[in-house]
Amino acid sequence: MWLCAIHDLGKATPAFQHCNEVEALRPREAGLTWNETRVAAKFWRHDRLGAVLLRNELKRVWSRRQLSWVWPLVAGHHGEFPTVGNLPTPSGFGEHFGVGDGWRDAQRGLLEMVTESVGFANLKDVEPVERPTRADQLAIAGFVVMADWIASNSTDFPGIDEIDYISLEVSRERAAQAWRRWRLRGGWANLAVPSSTIDLIGKRFNNVARESQFTVVEAAHQIESPGMLLVEAPMGEGKTKAALAASEVLAARFGCDGVLLAMPTQATCTPMFEEVVNWVSTFDPELVDEVQLLHGKRQFNQLWKEIWHNRPSENDVDDFGSIAEDEDFGCSAGSPSSVKDGESRPESWFHGHKRGLLTAFGVATIDQLLFAATRTKHVMLRFAGLAGKVVVIDEVHAADIYMSQFLYEILRWLGQARVPVVLLSATLPQHQRQALCDAYAEGATGRTDSVQLPESFAYPRVSLVWGEGNEARTDVKAADPWRDDFQVAVEVVEDTSDDGGPVVDRVRSDLRGGGTALVVVNSVKRAQRIYETLRDGFEGDTLLLLHGRLDDADRAERTAQSLNAAQADPDRDPTKRQVIVATQVAEQSFNIDADLLITDVAPIDLILQRIGRLHRHPSTPRPDRLREPRVIITGLAWTDTAPDFHSASEAVYSSNLLLRSAALIAETIAGGAVPASWRVPSCVPQLISDGYSDAFVFPDSWCEAAEKAEIEWEADQERRAETAAYFVLSEEAKRGAPCLDGLHHKPTHASEGELHAAVRDGPSSVEVVMVRRSPEGYTAMNGTRLGSNGEVSNEALDDLLGGVVRLPAKFTDEAEAQLTTLPGWEGHTWLGWSKALVLDQNGEADLGGHRLRYDSELGLQEVRGRS
Q1: Which of 46-50, 322-326, 605-609 has the lowest mean pLDDT?
Q2: Could you say which of 136, 168, 249, 521 has the lowest number of CB atoms within 10 Å?
Q3: Element (H or E) spanning 171, and its range?
Q4: Helix crossing, 401-416 with 703-725: angle to 10°?
């Protein structure tokens, strides 16, 4: 409370008071003067002036240890923590601080008065006994920013700019209004620890807990202090439900009031959001209003719209999610309202940028979590949204070397903040498991040596890591999978073409008697070609195409159709032919039950992920010829030396990992078993261990290609990790620093709109809003009429945004140079910065000498002028 109260001390200076000509009359009339010419000649931010004033006052009565962590919170309350060297000096800029005893008395008097008003006898009485951890300092800084933004919302809480209204009583009433208005009630209140004998899975989800799920919940009961649970279990084992139940135990034991569930993609967030809403409703239906969906396409989620239908969307929130002075460093005359036209509604504040994590319960893409580990402006507000929660990260293996740098960083900060974390994976290499545990343990203990995990090849298993003083503690708990091993026959169909002729032939052959096949390939172009070829002769049967170049509306519809067609269903007709042709969007968190899997070769852990869609539930009826599970691996061709791969696969994955995967496949096929097979799930840990082992042995004829691929891969891994270090929140040399000064030691190059690029290093691509040109003007992709210049009503906005599609990366430069907004979108919160791709009546458009076509079945294609 004291930190919030004194954070604007730097406004009691000429540098700030001179900014408003009218308001400047008051201090001048009171005898506080300045030389306007000198003060106006050099601009100084009031946050940094305040830090200097506070340091000068506190060093008279506080120890250096306590002083060192407080001033950065004042200096950084507009988003960035400077070093001491970046602060102004009174000797060099005395005019800006105020010259003469009058200014010094006013500043000191203000500080003393505020200190006494919040209940302290004097400044010495404020000095803490212990210094908070650096993570706690970051969270505190975030709450200071949060309080500042709410209090500065003068439209909703009038009185802040009128001197006659300023008093402690009025301030308290404004605070009470804000608490009521924004419903800042938090999540769980006084949550009782569930008995370890209660089946929480059964209580919350109406399913009797499987042994592995019970083990996860039991681990949450037994871990000795806030720590990390790393859950490894087969696909379809129910890991997410177990994690939610464990979160309830961890929250009750360690005083957490909410949960953030981070998913790998927007598509995987959609079903999980519904799961979390249903889960929250089982212990407090009123808390459903506290469940937030955090990704850029949430406006297409019907459940989210139903929950928040009386709340404003981002259209009702200011562009920057802050107060005006955050953007121009404290010389703004006013502060915009966070709600237009003076209308305020509950929870609207949490819709603003950077604020979503502050809600009690959230389902988010992992990017939203990783943003809190980037050296960007207002990172403290994001981290404040994680403090006091349980954080669950699903499909944690999906983070590549670049994203992993941010994942390890956020685990270090969460470990230091004593935030319980639950990580989930079906296919986790040993080196990644070790790195994840090391990162959390480093935060919890301050030590950088690797933790010693008990050796275990159990699967499922739960690894526990927690801190006890400066020592890391670990444990491993094993469980049996809920279903027995089954033999998955492994075959290879050689094919590296775009058209996938051999793949099409195999689908037609194997589905002669009916059945459901999932075909997963590594490129959109290959998926489109295979779909087109299969389409001939599939009349009356189900054939679906799913990939990332469908627009948002078509992709959502196609995903729902796929999940419905191929769901686990004891009443499914096994004689009906169903084929889903997909890219990696069907690789994980895609809850279908296929009779047959055909997949392009990929790293071994990802092949196993794809196998997780195969024969998922024993009760699903299957045609006789597909009664036994089978995976057919394609996208490669054997040669006298190393195998060839489809060019798109080599562009997506390294040749090193593809060669390792191919070697494991070749070894399986050459093993002599008929048919060649893997025992799933028990083979998963060993296959992944073999595939990523430093001692991996290739066939002799592959060695030259394999050695070259490994050297290139290692160099690329090192380069990507170094690139990520530029944006990671704390540089390696300062991880053990006690305070936040200099945290923003380099320029914060990642703006709000560029954050995705900060945590993902793939080729940059551009999202566009597709519209069709008509004689009368424009229409949305579904035919909804727009204005002659593209104007769109609120009712038609969803229809228009359903036409959003991401262009292939090779069109990024052309899109940035050529595409603009439509005239009717100017000034619109969502559309004002959007690029329009205008299609003719044939659904085609020219871009940079290329001809693009959008087809509702096939998605976006390049049809002529191919490069």
Answers
A1: 322-326
A2: 168
A3: helix 168-181
A4: 50
For the CA atoms of 642, 646, 648, 654, the dihedral, rounded to the nearest 10 degrees, stands at -20
Structure letter (DSSP) for residue 45: -
pLDDT at 421 over 70: yes
| Residue 380 DSSP SS3 | helix
How far, in Å, CA of 122 to CA of 689, rounded? 61
- Please name the residue that has the structure tokens 């049809």: 863
- pLDDT at 54 > cutoff 90: yes
Cα distance between the two ends of the chain: 61
Task: Determine the residue type at 138.
Answer: L
- Summary mean pLDDT of the chain: 89
Q: Is 520 strand, coil or helix? A: strand
Tokens 């769980």 belong to residue = 188
Is the pLDDT at 654 greater than 60? The verdict is: yes
Evaluate whether 443 touches 413 at the Cβ level (below 8 Å): yes
DSSP 195: P
- Give the span between the Cα atoms of 326 and 340, in whole angstroms: 19
Supply the DSSP symbol for 600: E
* Distance separating alpha carbons of residues 563 and 571, to the nearest angstrom: 15
**Residue 516 pairs with which residues in a beta bridge?**
578
Amino acid at 56: N
DSSP letter at 259?
E
Give the total residue count for the chain.
Answer: 867
Spell out the SS3 assignment of 62-74.
CCHHHHHHHHHHH
Q: Tell me the H-state helices in 291-429.
A: 302-307, 324-328, 366-370, 379-384, 401-416
Q: What angle do CA 757, 760, 763 make, to 5 degrees?
A: 75
**Predicted TM-score of the model (pTM):** 0.91
231 exposed, middle or buried (CB, 10 Å; 0-12, 13-18, 19+)? buried
Tokens at 244, concatenated: 């939610």
Distance (Å, whole) CA 568 – CA 154: 54
Instruction: With beta carbons less than 8 A apart as the criterion, state whether 831 and 769 touch.
Output: yes
Q: What are phi and psi of 312, to 5 degrees?
A: -75, 155
Tokens of 321: 């999610």
Beta bridge partners of 632: 491, 598
Over residues 763-777, the pLDDT tens digits come to: 778 899 999 998 888
Confidence of residue 709 (pLDDT cuts 50, 70, 90): very high
Burial 646-681 (b: 16+ CB within 10 A, else e): bebbeebbbbbbbbbbbbbbbebbeeeeeebbbebb
Residue 337 pLDDT > 80: no
Cis bond upstream, residue 643 (ω within 30): no
With CA atoms as reference, report the closest residue to 462 among 242, 769, 255: 242
All residues at 6 or more sequence positions from 400 whose CB lies less than 8 Å from its CB, including other chains? 720
Amino acid at 534: L
Maximum CA extent, the chain:
97
- Determine contact, residues 315/352, Cβ cutoff 8 Å: no
* Cβ neighbours around 141 below 10 Å, total: 27
Band (pLDDT 50/70/90 cuts) for residue 93 is confident
For residue 795, count CB atoms less than 10 angstroms from its CB and return exposed for 0-12, middle for 13-18, buried for 19 or more: exposed
Between β-strands 227-232 and 421-425, what pairing exists: parallel, antiparallel or unpaired? parallel
Spatial separation of the C-alpha atoms in residues 247 and 260, rounded to whole Å: 10
Given a contact cutoff of 8 angstroms between Cβ atoms, the answer to whether 361 and 292 are in contact is yes
DSSP 672: -
Over 60: is that where the pLDDT of 322 sits?
no
Average of pLDDT values for 696-712?
93
Query: β-pairing, 850-855 with 844-847?
Result: antiparallel
Helix (H, G, I), strand (E, B) or coil at 75: helix
347: Cα separation from own chain's centroid: 21
pLDDT at 622: 97
Alpha carbons 575 and 591: distance in angstroms, whole number: 21
Name the residue among 9, 50, 51, 13 with its Cα closest to residue 32: 13
